[in-house]
Protein 1
Amino acid sequence: MHTKRTMKSFTLLRKGIREGLSEFGFKKPTIIQSLAIPEILKGNNCLLIAPTGIGKTEAAILPIFHKFLKKREKGINILYITPLRALNRDILERMEWWSKKLDIKIDVRHGDTSQYHRRKQALNPPQMLITTPETLQAILPGSVMKNHLRDVRYVIIDEVHEFAEDKRGAQLSVALERLSEITKKKFQRIGISATIGSPKIVSRFLAGKNKMKILKASPAKNIDIKVVKPKPVRYGRDIAARTYSNLRASYRIAMIISLLRKHKSVLIFVNTREMAEILASRFNILGENVGIHHSSISQEARVRAEKEFKEMKYDGLICTSSLELGIDIGSIDLVLQYKSPKQVTRLLQRIGRSGHKIGQTSKGIIISTNSDDILESLVITRKALDEELEGIIIHDKPFDVLAHQLVGLALDKGVVNKKDALDLIRRSAIYNNLSKEELEEVLQLMRSLRLLWVREESFSKRRSAWEYYYSNLSTIPDERRYFVKNLVSREGLGVLDEAFVVNYIAPENLIIFKGSPWRVVTVDEDVIEVEPISNVTGAIPSWVGEEIAVQFNVANEVGKLRRLGGKIGEDSLAKYPTDNYTKKLAFSQVRRHLKMGIPIPSDNRILVEMINDFIIIHSCFGMKVNQTLGRVLSILLTSQLGHEVSLQTDPYRIILQSPSLLKKKTLKELLDIDAKGIKPLLNLSLKRSSLFRWKFVHVAKRFGAISKNISYNHISIRRLIDTYDESLIYKETLNEIFKDKLDLKNTSKVLNSIKSGKIKVEYIRPKKLSPLAELGLKSHGEIILPARAEHMIRKALEKRLGDKRVKLFCLYCADWSIYLKVKNFSDPTLCKKCGARMLTVIKRKFKQHISLFKHFKRGGKITEEEEKEIKRMQKSANLVLSYGKRAIITQAGWGIGPEIAKRVLIATNKENELYANILNAERNYAKTKRFWD
């Protein structure tokens, strides 16, 4: 409650700070400032929880400045930790004014800090250091910086919710305990967090064994969120034609453009980097002034995008979670969320970027696509407005992080007593139940990897410990990137992460990339060549690993709305923030379902749909439960049938594909599985999965079992897994998968509800896909239309070949040549010197080829290799003589010489077959070029 006592919290601060607040226009404290300032001044550890834009940073830092100014000490007194380098930069800019005002030396340090600047900090440390968890890891063992850290009195951890759930958080929690071993006195811990669902868990993670006060700003900031499905517009067809989109996607683009016109500064959030690129390319075609920001573009490009958006050089900025955190990008008057945000906390964080100033309303619009997306967005929005946030699940004593921290302790102290190490590690909430036996097991593994000397009572570093420790400062997988190239146009399409490549990429695989379907042609060391295809059937969607997982409770409420909507229609959405048009479309698939006489899958009904070789299990249980249940069913079916059963999941479906037709009885037996049996079954089967292989390599790197820089191409992953079978590396890989990708608790709940009859299971074998099954199989709304794809493939190839420059050289007179783009050659092309048509196509090394032929014509001696080249030139010229410009076009193709060109031209009966045949020839070359190279 905002009492008179808390209203006076500014008066508790020093005069210089009050004057600064006055200059900034802070007339009275916000709720979080009123709550936090008195408690921090008392020396209490505090977790500050509040929405974006109500002065959390000032609430934490100003009372710390007040205390610091009362008693300045040498060395680093204040440590400010953020999850991102970009946030470091942003905080430094915000603190520089206070630095000058209060005469406090503030500096930043992270991985990009120059050696010169680091040396300066070592000689003359700042009084406040802004850094990242990884850099804290780096400076803890260093003798000079460690000495400066002895004076740390205050540690502020910004955006603490970003750390709590991942292994960076586990690493940071132990690092804070290692820091407490160095400091002369106990330091005060302050956490700053966005609104979260599990404040007690986060405070425990931050505090360790220390007491911590949770200070939450309530009521929350004013929020205005609406879910809309864009209406058709007359100019939609024009947008669709110009952007190669379908009509529904064009209406969404039209709506965004309309909203850009009505607002000064719009942030457009999407859920994946791929979608950011797709949208940005559409706006680029339409000439809209929209920027792009995501983690796969360079740091320089991201910084430039932030700066230019802040300066209002863009009307809008398309971004992923890269801009969820509190980086200052200026005043935003609207946030658009393109498609469902998938999670409540994510929606609040994103919408909170608008109306960033104190007292302003955060305004956001979710632009939804289909009925699943509408209902999901409505549920998430309702939960956001009612402050029903997802709970946070922290890691339970991850052993790979522990291994790294034990090596860190050895570097910190030299010789470490095992009992002292166990006591220190247990002070972290992540490891408070670590047993003596588990510690010993990790130490013995590190001994076998030659990273630690381990004795009966103590352990110490080996020479290799330094390299291992510093090459594994980050727990974030350091993935390689593969460049993707369009075989048709020879243009770069973008990059794919190593994880996607390991899981899904192999020659002949079909994938969705950049919103279009492609066939993989070749996979080289760092380049993947793909060709566009017309048919999207069977194409693997964009990797779900990047997708944000929809939680069980959200998907379950969507199921409930389906059930109610089937009875009372739009009235069931009376309390949800949307318009009547969107309400109608929310139940469009449900209505179609009812017309076909098909039961509606919901929160208490699973519908199993068997059609051709597909089994679609409609299950409203969220991504992790469906992934868990889907894997179990896939394993059991594969075992029974003796062949692989493919699996695809989303929050509302499990899609299995099998060449064998399955009986209802078989599926009924599978869904009757005992919940207690699913973990052992998954333990056995996950070992064979691509997901396990990918995770295993990253865990092995964190343990130091393999080099951090090694790539998948240079190791036998299968042999590696066999070597460390049943080891801590193996166990930790399973632990990570179970936490991040699966949900045993709610899967068991679903299976028990099936057994008890609370959830009914119904089976159908329809003649055609049900509306909701169709929605799941054709959910990629941005995919290019197949009919247009064929036309585009030919156009792209025609353009590329037409723009290719080649040299024609007359073999008859050997005295004339011309260098032009292929499209600019006439048909027939004649030698301007002698009028002959005996012209050879030269694509490279022009001078060498011409010089060789002139030497040959004069009767000079030539080698066997040179004779082959002369014959190649003569064959090329014969083709031009016989086929004219078509021979020039064909030979301009990638990897197509006279022999291949001859086959292409002979096989081409009709004009429109030429480009298809050239493409086939290029494709064959791509597959075999490694033999020619």
Protein 2
Amino acid sequence: MKGHDRMRQSPQSSPSWLSTLSTMIKSSGTQELDVFCRRVLLVARTKWIMLAMLGVYGLCAAVSYAMSSIGFCFTTQQTTFLVLTALAVVICNLLTCRFCGTASQRTSLIHIQIGLDLLFVTILIHFTGGVASWFWPVYLLVTLEAAFLFEDRRDVWLIGTLGAALYGALLIAEAFHLLSEVVMPFVGQSLHGAFLFQALMWLWVAGMNATVAIIAAYLMDTIRRDHRKLKESEEALFGFISTASDLIFCCDAAGTILYANQVCRDRLRFDLGEYGRHSLCELVVAPDRDRFNNWFRRVQAESHTGHIEVRFTGDGVEHVDVEMSLTSCAREDQAAVVWGVCHDITERKQAQQELYKLAHHDILTGLPNRVLLQDRLLQARALAQRMSSRFALLFLDLDRFKIINDTLGHSVGDELLRLVAGRLKRTLRETDTIARIGGDEFIILLVNMHEHNEVAVLAEKILKSLSLPFSLRDHELFITTSIGICMYPDNEQDSEVMMKKADIAMYHAKALGRNNFQFYSDDMDQNASRRFVISNSLRRGLENNEFTLHYQPKVDISTNRIVAMEALIRWNHPELGLLSPVEFIQLAEENGLIMQLGEWVLREACRQTMLWISAGLDSMRIAVNLSGYQLQHKDLLTTVRTVLAETGMNPDNLEFEITESVIMQNPDFAVSILSEISDLGIHISIDDFGTGYSSLAHLKRFAVNTLKIDKSFVRDVDMNATDAAIASAIIAMGSSLKLNVIAEGVETQAQFDFLKKNKCNQVQGFLFSKPLPAKDVLALVRENRGGEN
């Protein structure tokens, strides 16, 4: 950092040619007064020199005469007059120096002064021989003085004419003896009486004075015109520099700023009075200083123009990005300086950053997009190979997100995605990458992983974080997500294939009920192929009537009497055999066929129920599952009314089972639609209760009739105290709200005994019957009811 230290040294004195730059920026009127004043002072100093020379010459001449045989030739009166005249000239010159400013503002005083000078010269000529005096050329000096001081050539000609006139008046006064002649040695007395000599001398002096006046006026006019053009050019140059839109500055070899134009001062915020106090290097941001310092020295050493991009900063100044050009220049008798021109590229840099962000980040959430994710994956793979570690790729898809877009609008959906992105960033580590690759799909890159358990812990943390409610636009939304996980290098090493496998694992998580995570395994590839076949044949299955319904009974726990049936769809696939709804309901939702399929289920269940009622099972109620897409579809109520009218079904014999997670995804909307369904006389059951984070406050708002305890709480209810407590609490809550409570998944007598002891209303499960085809239901119900017809 020697160069940096050198640039921080005390500033050197600026070159004289650079110091003129500040005067160029002054107002033109003040500058002209200053220039005229300097001219007056220069003339005054010249007069001092001339007076000194004349004084020395006069003294030498007087001494020489006094010591010669001629003797001193002036009388006392003449000597006194000459001395007084000389004193008057000295006093005038002193006043000129003292009141230069006043004289420069009132040019008439300068005319008077030059007139006095001519008078003094005439007196001097008279006392040194008159027509034969040697001092007549002093007239020419006064004419030159006028040419130097006056810009108007007519003033110069006037002074030349006045000098000739005074000389002529002196000759006439001496010729007519109005003034007594002063006798000088070595001059013939006859010359004073020779008219021709006097005329020729006057013509000579007048002609020379006129010639000098004309030539001097012309030369000074030319000089002034050239000077004026040069000054105008310089003023134009420095005016351009001062008002240029670029940052322009000059600094000495140590880097101390000697001059900066207005834009530079404004952008970097320092004043004119602070020149010599700012080091150029100190204005450069710290990360760029070494690079700039080396380049600055190189420009000085090689005396060439260089270009560099740096960033300036300062007190209270936002960073200013510039493209800088430096040039080192010097004159033989002056110190070297460096001129810099900086083009402000801050906006261009910001635009480049914005373009980079647009190219590498998702516009909606600000998260990395697929392009940046690929780069991060390459880095993660290189790091994992070098450190012999693992990394994980998590594929997240929000469950039933399309419902929110369809019901609340895309603006709410977009805002929800932004909130999800923010929550993910707060949940995960800074070293992890969260990317949005489209729609409601997110990719998370977890680096420096060692065990599957570490990834599982973070995945569980994500699920819990996203399960908390989101509040936006007066809505309280609950969402869940399904996560597929692929590990490097365990599952795959190619990044594209890793994302595909994580996607497969995510769909496997959705198939297992959503709101969970699954690690990729090889057998999932077969499932992916199976999913592809199922997805492609869904529409054909509807057209070919390949679907059927199975029915599972619901039993009153106090009487063991079958009181209702739940309709469960099955698919008799021509290639894959009998398929459960777990394998195709989600695909139907994705393909947009869920409304067609749901309408078929509703119509078939109502038709079959009417057949059973006709057969004597008049108290039979049928339960039909309603998906989230059906619940929030605008044509749902119209479809329900149409099916009830076509089949003649009594709404009291129909029950809709809706999962708690679907209802809680948008509770406000659920309140509205459930009320409309209830107004039709249809019973409503909340399925999988206990998994959707609903509260007592929500239940009070919903128009529901039944709570169906999720089988996950029933499975170990006789062995697990926590499950037992949850089941008991749900039963108690349902009883207090006067709701029917049914437990699903009852498979053992111990489970049944626990539920009966805690006064659960109904049970459903393999303990009583598996789902049966419609043809077997009638016999089962009659057997349960003691053979009634």
Protein 3
Amino acid sequence: MLSIALALCPRAFALNPALDVSQYAHTSWKYREGFTKGGINRIVQTADGYLWLGTGFGLYRFDGVRAVPWQPPPDQPLPSNAITYLLAARDGTLWIGTGYGLASWKNGKLAHYGELDGFEITRLIEDREGVTWVGAIGYPDGKLCEIQKGNVRCHPEMGGLGHGVMGLHEDAKGNLWVGFEEGLWRWKPGPPEFYNIRQPSGIQGMTNGEDGGLLISTPSGLQRLVDRKFNLAYPFPKRMPTSAASRILRDRDGGLWGAVYTVGILHWHQGRMDVFSEPDGLSNNVLRDLFEDREGNIWAATDNGLDRFRDLPVVNYSRRESLSSVLASAVIVAKDESVWFGSRDGFNRLSHGQLTVYSDRRIPVAAGVSETVIKGLPNTLLAALTQDSQGRIWLSSRTAVGYLEDDQFIPVAPGGVASALREDSAGNMWTAYQDLGLVRLSGRKEVERIPWDKFGHKDPATAMIPDPVNGGLWLGFVNGGIAWVREGQVQTSYSAKDGLATGRVSDLRIDREGALWAATEGGLSRLKNGRIATWSSKNGLPCDTVHWSVEDDTRSMWLMTSCGLVRVARTELDAWAAGGNNATWKIHPTAFDSSDGVNTQAFFGSQTPHVAKSPDGKLWFYNVDGVGVVDPRHLLFNKLPPPVHIEQITADRKTYDTGSNPNPRLPPLVRDLVIDYTALSLAAPEKIQFKYKLEGHDRDWEEVGNRRQAFYNDLPPRHYRFRVAAANNSGVWNEAGASLDFEVAAAYYQTIWFQALCVLWAAALLWLLYRLRLRQMSARVNLLYQERLAERTRIARDLHDTLLQSLAGVSLQLDGISKQAATAPEKTPSLIARVREQVDSAFREARTKVWNLRSTSLEAQGLEGALRQLVERMGPTMTARCNVTVTGQPRPCSPDIEEELLRIAQEATNNANRHAQANEIRIALDYGAGSLTLSISDDGKGFDFEEGLRKTGHWGLKNMQERAAQIRGTCKITTAAGQGTQIEIRVPLSTWSLKNALRRNTLAKHAHSSSGSR
């Protein structure tokens, strides 16, 4: 039966008691899909927000997204992996009942209770005094025990216990009730009292009654204890299998939930009961437990998994809630506050909680639903609806256009496929047909048809609304564009060129300020005073396609889009209007999607109205499988910030549990680091938003949406703090969140001592390099000094042997001339001429020495040209033929190398000319693949090489060898008496000379200035 009160609950943390179970959001996790290893026996929630699930194969911890198997410490095993009952105590202890004993988990330690070893734990409760009560089954006798401060006290004095405790419950008055096979005990306070109410499976399901007393489950229903007698308060359906509810739950809103074996969930609320079972989507009809979490969600444990029921902002009514069939037409709210909506079989009318179905024939309806047969009522699958000024309900369908009056359908015009039906201020009824055009039906039943091409459109209108101020109609067309029509003529029109959103116009609305709103495929456009502003995904809408818009009592705007229902607050609208309808203004809407109960679809039906507002402020709209309703005044709001936990950290595939190791030290050289975190808001875990920050690495918070892992690569060794915060489905943030301190250890070469040693080692190496360089520079300076000294010695020797001797001879001749001038003056001119020739010879010899020190021909002509010039200069003094040959491709060479080779050639040629008595001297220059070879050979008399080296005062051979070594070349001298001489110098082309050309130039200039100039 449909709910009598369709009000949405204004509470944030409870299920709306006016709704059937099928109207809550339902989600299943099935063990056959890999959720757990088997069916779930018990559910409990600890203070940290986790949901704990006890199965026949162990314990699981569930955060709303992942069910993770829980493992006790290696040296602290559970009595059994078959979990039979769970209890979360107020002091943070998790009590774990198993098939073979009891354990408790707190602060990382697992405690055992030997008094209950071998017993199956069937019930666990904590009373108002903090005492834990344990019921157990055993053979031949069970046990009832109380545990306080670790001390276990069992009650053997309790007679008639049989095999054990089947149920435990403390009522609102503080009475402790114990159920077993033979009946019921009120155990405390005061002396125990026995109630002989025998049940086939014992007294299992117990909860509080409305008066705070006791309700128990029996095969006939829920019975209430009144004056020591049990009376049937909530009977089970007559056709239901005879079985008591093994678990009864009273939620915080007063609704009762029962888990009945093989039947499913029974739900009593506001004087009625509904059933939810496998055909409705329940994971399994064999229920083991029912539980309500801190956010008001109801959880059911079954043999096939876990089911969750939660309230929704948008409530849906479909055939499952007794509508006649799937909805596929318009929805209106009449003046009498009744809601009308079309369906495949007829009309549905909801008035004061009573549903009436109007059809042309009798159809099956649910209990409590009224049915009215109206002969001739057309098929309403594609019907448009409206109500005229006289209060009559009009419809336009394929077969006829007419109205309802006194439970009769009065046809007044032929039908067709119509998208809109409206009455204008003059009492005319207008119908927009796809094929027939725009049809006007006057109050006198006159029919006027206006084709679409008269309005400048080949496409039909899909939306229509009368203008209450200026008269006429506004039309919106299937291919886009709007037009204002009056007296059959288009008065004005707008299209995408004018700023209107593009695409099909699905809905038109005029607000209380006279602005026209057009919902289109390209967004929502607002027309006022001839100006158009458009909202789309570019300025804040979740998506472009808008099916309809409506304004609620708070003047906030609601939009149905292809991606969900959107609410734009009044403050956003006012800010947009204050901005001069700025098209670039960004809105920040609240979006509702399928997780909020919105059945979204890409294409919406053509028949209008799509949405209607009832006098109580609720918004009614149709969708593909029923009608939805939202109460803007009582939107659900989750005020609880979600607890945040960092579960584990994984470094290079090795996992560190942050529970047992809150400050892990990670090994060095970690490449891949993954941090798993979660937040415990179980109402809509998929809508939780996270942000995190790694202090010491991240500069700012990283917003990651619903992702529950953080990834880092190649973190350098240091101490880090990872912080994470989360917001629930209503956007309430837990800013404190959770944090984790960890450290990445340093490799030996990343440690401070190693780095200090490296610095010291580098300093020592630099010192050694400095010392080596200093030694090299000292050796170079010494070599340069020796070279300079040898050069000075040679120059002094040459000057002494040539220039000074010549000048000494000139001086002696001048003395002779001065003596002869007195005795034989006639001989003086000839003597002066001879002195003149001697001076000229001295000058020529000095210039030759200067050329030998510095060759300008190398700079101008290169090595080959300098060798040829050398031969030309020596021509007048040479007695042998001399020629120069070059082989190979000449390549650029270091100037120092060319200078030394030229001097070697000069020295060798002079020696051959002076001493060898040769007929021919050959100078050969060969540019080989990897070396440069200079060869000077003659056909003279030769000499003994060893004897030549031993002669003192003659430095030619030694100088040539030193020059060759200086340019890192080799000097090979081949000679023997009577066999001529060959000198071969081979230099690698990659060699760079260490000679200092500037020093040579300086010495040459000094010698030139010492000898004078002409």
Protein 4
Amino acid sequence: MSNNNEVKISQYIVNILKEKGVRYVFELSGGMIMDLIDTLYVDGCIEIINVHHEQNAAFAADSIGRLSGIPGLAIATSGPGAINLLTGIGSCYFDSSPAIFITGQVNTSEQKGSKKIRQLGFQETDIVSMAKPITKFAYQVKCVDEIPLILNKAFEIAVNGRPGPVLVDIPMDIFRAKINNNKLLNTQAIVRDVEEIDDVLISKLLMDMRKAKKPIILVGGGVRACGAFDLYIKLVKLLNIPIVSSLLARDCIPYDDQNSVGMIGTYGNRWANIALSEADFLLVLGSRLDIRQTGADTKSFKGNRIIYHVDVESEEINNRVLGCYPIVADMKVFIRTILNKLDGHELQKNNSWIKTIRNLQDQWPDILELKNIKGINPNYFMHKLSETRKASIYTVDVGQHQMWAAQSLELYEGQRFLTSGGMGAMGFALPAAIGASFFKSKEAPIVVIAGDAGFQLNIQELQTIKRNCLPIKIIIINNNCHGMTRQFQETYFGGRYQATLWGYNTPDYVNVSRAYGIPARRINDTNEIEDALKELWHDPLQAYLLEVIVDPYTNVYPKMAFGKPISHMEPFCKPIEMEGT
């Protein structure tokens, strides 16, 4: 950085962003943020990606943060622009994605302050108060001198401990103000209080693991969020224990790994849920054990099994499932401790337990959960989509297609799976794929899997894909309804399909895609799948849309019967009561 002269605050901010490793900024222009946009353009070191809704800027930043570990960046103007970021900010918060959100605010002289009025300046909105519940830190800058401290604090907080989003709101006149370019940039790192790992407890964990006849590891999204994935891979190779995953950890064990079992939870693979229910030892790594993983019957989930629960946040342990041995630790520290204890020695493999699980998998294949289905079986389609292994990253939207993908995609080493878990935000996949494509420098194909309903929420970003020549392959599983809530209505509301099937329809996605200049095709029958996928991958680096028609009454099975143990799944078991989530 220059050692002389003063610079505008907007330039100073850009300098800090570059120092922190930010390569991309996602934005939609607006008056209160234009000074920063102009400075980013003139500086030229950070690529500016213009999207067509601020929510999509936030989802793209979410994607970048998850993939790189460096906070993704999205910026928006005051009022509607800032408010439109909130869904994406919430997605970052619930799924532990590091991200920085900078919003423009009206000039300090135009702010209402303590006046008992709704608004003074045009578009003046208290975005900080709105964002606080779904951020790790949200702050409105009051004066120029706060900028160095606040921006450095923002980056520290975003990545420290359990990662998440930070919002910094900056008035327009402060962007234009001057600051000494030599202001100290690096501030003291914020250190999160994490309990020391009890050596006796670790020894007991390993002893219990060795004694167990049916041990299982449940891996959650926290393993990748805290940057412990490489260490985790070393650990699981030594432990030789079957591994089940949560939705957000679908890419944490390769499909062809001998210890890979499948996804557990509400829509988990039936064999994986049964295996988990039979386990006598469970090691939980970075998973919250929320209701979509355990079901409502937490007493049955705990049973008589021994559970060790590792998480960076103490409040997440013994929250719903009681009686777990708590290990509050940074995942990297925990895994290093275990690796040191093992000292390179593998645990003895329990071949009979592995064989039992494989027999369960043979007994309950995912492609046969939907018997007598009309037309294309979505689980079968997901397997066929996976065969080429050309996708570097799958970004998956929210709905029935999300669960079919999570149940049946074959994810191999190096492939990633991104979806909106805690927020469950429809419209996530397309902008997340845009972020992922820039992360990959537009040199590797990204596959979007979306439903017809969710795709309509952010369909305008097809223009962003075309304008930037992004190699994004879009799969739309079109069942011409809001499928997951239609299935809910089938179970609990006597098949009255208002607002899901009735009063809903879709456009012609093939013609829509072509209107944006992106080639497209529609298939209706199983015998078309192979040829369509060849066409999809004809040019791996060209955008393409494939619409896959699925019968509207197709359900996602298996599905945990609400109120019953995790192994009791529909359609063979019926729920006790209406789902609470």
